[in-house]
Amino acid sequence: MRLNESVIQSHRDLLYCTLQEQSDDSSGEEAAGDTNMDFLRNLFSSTLGIGSPDKVLDELTLEGVARYIKSGKCKNILCMVGAGISTSAGIPDFRSPGIGLYANLQKYNLPYPEAIFQIDYFKKHPEPFFALAKELYPGQFKPTVCHYFMRLLKDKGLLRRCYSQNIDTLERVAGLEGDDLIEAHGTFYTSHCVSFCCRKEYSLDWMKDKLFSDDIPRCDKCNSLVKPDIVFFGESLPVRFFTSMKMDFPRCDLLIIMGTSLQVQPFAGLVGRYESFLLLLITDSVDPLLGLLGFGGGMDFDSDKAYRDVAHISTCDDGCLALADLLGWKAELEELVKREHAKIDSQDKSSESKGAAAKASSASVAPEPRKEE
Ligand SMILES: [Zn+2]
């Protein structure tokens, strides 16, 4: 039995090497490689039993997932998260056209809403983006139950990594940092001069000063614009996203997807590419689910062949609380949220009193942001 397992493991490793080599150009067009890869994957998974018995749930429910985590066989959990995990913190899903923040930006006469994140438009008209950046400035929102659930996974040594589509930095505020986190769409945490010849780096504090004094941030070396390191349309994703993905997905035991409809590439492509892990989708929106079922998103929740994918229909916070409850962690999670939120509140209070003077002189572009200094 043991020997057999190790043979299978080495075949799996070989397979993954092959797949990874094939997907080396995964940053963009991958159509050509996909057919070959699917063929190889199916061949190996049927002959070698990938999706091995120790990774098949006794029941495709949240309870089944909880039992699997508690069994000790689940050592590497990946989380893949999107805007839906931050909406309960008050951050709208502002990448979706036609809602909330875009409407507030009408005064800038954007040719179309997405222009605000278009790199070429930004270089000519940076004002709308910086107005939005001020409004969404990190530090004005508190992480959610869902963010702290991931922190708990980390504290318990179960979180291999969190892949986030969000740029609100709430994962960092919740205590995920460095290796814990891949910010696939970049981060506000650092900024760079947009000039290719210069690329001088600027800190969060520097950017904050500029935003809240309503200055357009310009490089003090070359006077080009300085942009937070979030990924605009027309820019490539961070290299770390691709290198980590190749290491993480083959070794993943459980992938938890929360708050994303997986319609944004390359996230969407990841789920179908690897099959050796279990998948839990927590969503309160059934539409994307139907989309995934209908358009081959790589998940299978309810067909006769379903064996690994679990969908839990609820808000991300409720889903995490329910899972924490089943794991016996509910009190711990609630305590963590309470303690961390109290810490943020006390920091806000002390910075509000210091920032009161500055607040009075701020010309408001966006609806009254909380001042911090
Ligand atoms: Zn510069």
TrEMBL record:
Cofactor(s) it depends on: Zn(2+)
Cofactor note: Binds 1 zinc ion per subunit.
Localisation per UniProt entry: Nucleus
GO biological process: regulation of developmental process; regulation of multicellular organismal process
A cellular component term, taken from the record's GO annotations: nucleus
Active site per database record: 185
GO MF annotations, alphabetized: histone deacetylase activity, NAD-dependent; NAD+ binding; NAD-dependent protein demyristoylase activity; NAD-dependent protein depalmitoylase activity; zinc ion binding
Domain of life of the source: Eukaryota
E.C. number: 2.3.1.286
Binding site for Zn(2+): 193, 198, 219, 222
Biased segments, Basic and acidic residues type: 342-352
Residue ranges constituting the Deacetylase sirtuin-type domain according to the UniProt record: 55-330
Region (Disordered): 342-373
Regions of compositional bias (Low complexity) in chain numbering: 353-366
Stored InterPro entries: DHS-like_NAD/FAD-binding_dom, NAD-dep_sirtuin_deacylases, Sirtuin, Sirtuin_cat_small_dom_sf, Sirtuin_class_I, Ssirtuin_cat_dom
Keywords tagged on the record: Metal-binding, NAD, Nucleus, Transferase, Zinc
Ligand binding (NAD(+)): 83-87, 93-95, 165-168, 260-261, 316
Catalytic activity: N(6)-acetyl-L-lysyl-[protein] + NAD(+) + H2O = 2''-O-acetyl-ADP-D-ribose + nicotinamide + L-lysyl-[protein]; N(6)-hexadecanoyl-L-lysyl-[protein] + NAD(+) + H2O = 2''-O-hexadecanoyl-ADP-D-ribose + nicotinamide + L-lysyl-[protein]; N(6)-tetradecanoyl-L-lysyl-[protein] + NAD(+) + H2O = 2''-O-tetradecanoyl-ADP-D-ribose + nicotinamide + L-lysyl-[protein]
Family note: Belongs to the sirtuin family. Class I subfamily.
Described purpose of this protein according to its UniProt entry: NAD-dependent protein deacetylase.
The protein's name: NAD-dependent protein deacetylase
Organism of derivation: Mola mola
